[in-house]
Each structure stands twice: as structure tokens, then as C-alpha cells.
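FW: tagging you since you asked about this chain on Friday. Here's the raw sequence from the shared folder, copied in full. Didn't touch anything.
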Amino acid sequence: MEDAKIGVWECIATIGCVNIIPLVLTIPTFTAQNFGTGSMFHTIYSIIIGAISLGILFRLFFKFPGKDFFEISEYAGGKFLKYLSYIIVIAYLLTSTVIVLSEFNENIRNILFKNAPSEYVYLLFIVGMFFGVLSGVKGIFRTGMIIGPIILSALLFMFFALFENIDTTNYFPAFGNSFSDFFVEGGFRIEIFEGMFLILLMGGQLTNVKKASIGSFILVSFIVLLVSALLFGIIPYPTTPENYFPFSELSRLISFGRFVQRVEALYTLIWLLAVYLYISLDASYITQILSKVFNIKYPKRIMLLICMLIFGITLLFKSYITVLAVRKIFITYVIPFATFLYSLLIMIIATAKLRRKENEKI
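HL: got it, structure written out here
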């Protein structure tokens, strides 16, 4: 990966930006579909599960200072595991980028560009993504340092502006549709922390991995609680699953008399900035990984190719229903496997090998 160092606050702010995008799109909708009125308490349950799961994963990761996920994979299982990790991570990043682009494209067209062909809107995102990738990973994290506080301030402002609209009775019954689904199925739903996986890819780039990971988890947990309290407290179940861009609806509830009546336009701009950051970061890591796999000396030469590849794949999704179906599969099965189970397996194998070598020295 790039040699440029990434500061703790740059990492925390950017991870917060990356995590906000799935939260303002369809994750709350799918959560409400599965857990009904128990969605708010399931969010708290997911944070507890996430703290335990990520605590174990990062505790093992800290045993390999200065190494990223791929270097640890190579240490654990040689070239085979290293290249297998390359394939899984590229597939994960590419899929998440395409899904976010497809989801946001559909929603932004409904809000701002109702008569515009989807291909033209996609091109706007692709051009922005290309310039984001051109700035490099370090440049994207510096941008995240600026956008992160803006997003957090916007969320806090929305929370206090709509606080009176929150009805706490919408949070009950606390366990929603099914007690067993809440605890058993809900125990594997850690998609709200998917952005934390990027820390594993940074490795030696981070000036302080421990502080960055802990700070990122705290910020993401706070954002998740804030988003859930607003959404599930204002839009009651079963209305929640009917909204696939719920925060656009919430922003329309904010008004300041007759002079400021279109606050949702400002929030749409903020979500746009966060989406550009999300897709640019994913595309940057895809570029870096492919450069390492094929030993490309100048990664900038393949940036346009990767952006066009993403553009081409997004055009395959003609139906928004198909995008939502793919998203549901992605958050239910792919994210838990790619961001946690596979990563944890690699860390366990590498840690066992490290301990065996240490014991041999003794």
C-alpha cells in the first residue's frame, strides 16, 4: 500500500464518513423489515456484538504492528492465502462500490434529476470518483478530515431539530417480530461496522493503529445510535420498511419559518460528498491492490480503467428491485464473511504460527 502515513484523526473522521452512507440508504429499512419495532434495541444489541467481535479481531491484529491484512495473510498461509485475500477484498470493495452507486443514483434521481437518464447521473459520480482516486489514499483521508465533522454536525443538528418529533413508544415491543430472530439472526448483523474493515487494509500506514481503531469504533457507534434514534423514533413501524432513502424524508421535516424551507437540499449535498468519499476510497484500494498483484509501477495508469469497469458494472442493474435484492444478500452474508469471519480466521492462523515460532525460540 502507499507509504504516506495516515493520522489518527484522519482515520476516525474518514471511517465515520464511510459508515454513514449505508446507514442513510437501505440498512435501516432492512433492519426494520427483519426486527420491526425492535430495530432500535437491535441496534444497541449489534453495537455490543460488534464491540466483542471487533475487539477479538483487532486484539489479534495488534500483534502484527506495521503489517496490513495482506502481509498477515501471506505470513499465515504463504502466497496462496495472500492472493486469496486479494481476490476476496477486491470482490468485496468492487461489490460495495457498485451497490452504493446504484442505490444513491436511484435516490438522487428521484430527488434532483427526475428526468435525467441514469447513465448521465452515473457519469457524474464516476468523474468525481476518478479525481478522488487521482488524489491518492492520503488525499482522500485528508478530505475525510474535513467532511467528517460536517457530517457529524449535520446529524447532531438534525437530531436536536427533530427531537420533539421522536416518539419513544415506536421503540416497543423491544424484541420486535420474534425473540429468537432478534438474538440469533440479529447476532450476525454487523453490517453497521463494515467501514472498520478498512483499518485492516491500512496497517503500517496508520501512525497509531490502536487509537485509530478504538476512536473509529466509538464514533461509528455514536453515529449508529443517533441515526437509529431519529429514524425509528420518528417513522413508526411498519412505515419504516417502505422508505429506501429515509433520511431524505426526515430532512424535509426541518424548517425555519418561511425563509428556510429547503433544508433537505443541504443534506443531499452532504450525502453526495460522503458518497464521493466512499466510492473514491474503495476505488483507490482496488487500484493499489491490482498494482501490487500485477506489479504495476505507476498505479495511475489503471485508474481510468477501474473507474470505467465500475461504471460498466453499475449499468448492468436495470431494476432498483434487483439492486435492493443484491444489497440484502450483501449485508446478510457477504459483509459478515468478508469483513469478520474470514479476517478472524486469517488472524487466528497467523497468531498460532507466531506463537509456535516464539515457543521454538525458547
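FW: The chain has a mean pLDDT of 86.
HL: agreed, and The chain is about 75% helix and 0% strand.
FW: great, closing this out.
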